[in-house]
Amino acid sequence: MKKRRPWPGDDRETYMKNVIEYQFSLKKADTPENWGHESSDFVNKLLKRKTNQRLGLNGSLELKNHIWFREFDWGHLSHKKLQP
Asked: Which of 5, 29, 51, 63 gives a 20 to 30 Å CA spacing to 43?
């Protein structure tokens, strides 16, 4: 079995440039069947390579207000009323 690098590049400089500039995104085919679009969107926004585009840059409310958490009871969490 031949080992392959995860990024293209014939020389070290090109390889490192590709590593630094690569933007990973979770694709539908890579997600579990029981995941909805909202969960994939949440993960992809957390994985933004450019920090100024990442979800949560402007505070935790940005995370709490994401559509994936629309039915989550943050009050129960802060009062430790959620069941594990």
From this structure: 5
Q: Is 66 within a domain?
A: yes
> CA distances (Å), 59 to each of 49, 55, 65, in order?
18, 9, 11
Q: How many Cβ atoms are within 10 Å of 41's Cβ, its own excluded?
A: 15
Q: How many CB atoms lie within 10 A of CB 46?
A: 13
Q: How many domains does the chain have?
A: 1
Whether the predicted pLDDT of 1 surpasses 80: no
Q: Are 68 and 42 in contact (CB under 8 A)?
A: yes
Q: Which amino acid is at 43?
A: V
Quickly state the pLDDT bin for 2 (edges 50, 70, 90).
low
Residue 82 lies inside a defined structural domain of this protein: yes
Percent of the chain with pLDDT over 70: 94
